[in-house]
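Supplementary notes for students who missed Thursday's class. We covered one full example, reproduced here. Read the sequence, then the structure, then the short commentary at the end.
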Amino acid sequence: MNPLANFLTGLSLIGGFAAIIYSLEGHFTFACWAIILSVIFDGLDGQIARKNPVPSEFGKELDSLVDVVSFGIAPSILGYVFVYREFYFWATLVLFIYLTCSVLRLAKYNITPKEKLVNYFYGLPTTVSGGVLASFILIFRKHRDLSPPPVIFLFIVLTLAILMVSRIKYLNLDGLKQVLGKKVKLTVLALTLLLILEAFLRKVGITLFTLFLIYLIFSPIVVKRLNR
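Structure (token representation):
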């Protein structure tokens, strides 16, 4: 058991729970940032867990359960309350499909042998799908007179749901390190500075959404090249 990794997992859970509360209270910007912080804590948790020579089954199960809350339930509630605000059948159905697919994605990950997950995951990670929805809503939250077109929002949600349970291969952190090589620290620094700059320009939502989309679209292509 790795106490630090589990502590970071707990912070990710706090972020997911906070996102739900903020969504229900109508504080959508805070809700989006709470989910994005959960994405960061989940990534740090994974990095620390990988350094532990003895894998922790408890940590693995805990991480998956937290991911259901932070990247399954929280984005679903955030999207529903922000876009629709009152009952809408098709939104309920599509978001339930999204939640179900996130649960299935995590359950399949837990039973997949580690030797099959050297540099990639099968299916889009729930962290990315949650980040896509949070950053998408953050874009529109900056323009209070606008809201995401319902059809486009549901299309994005359904696409993410399908990708999560697909057999498409997406880079994990080890795969990203292999691709970047010695430029990992430089890349992290550059992205951090970019996000700080965009925060001052109040366009951080667009930047985050673009970064998540770049991973979503190009990651499977990079995996194919790695396998060759």
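Commentary. The chain has a mean pLDDT of 83. The first strand starts at residue 120 and ends at 122. If anything here is unclear, bring it to office hours.
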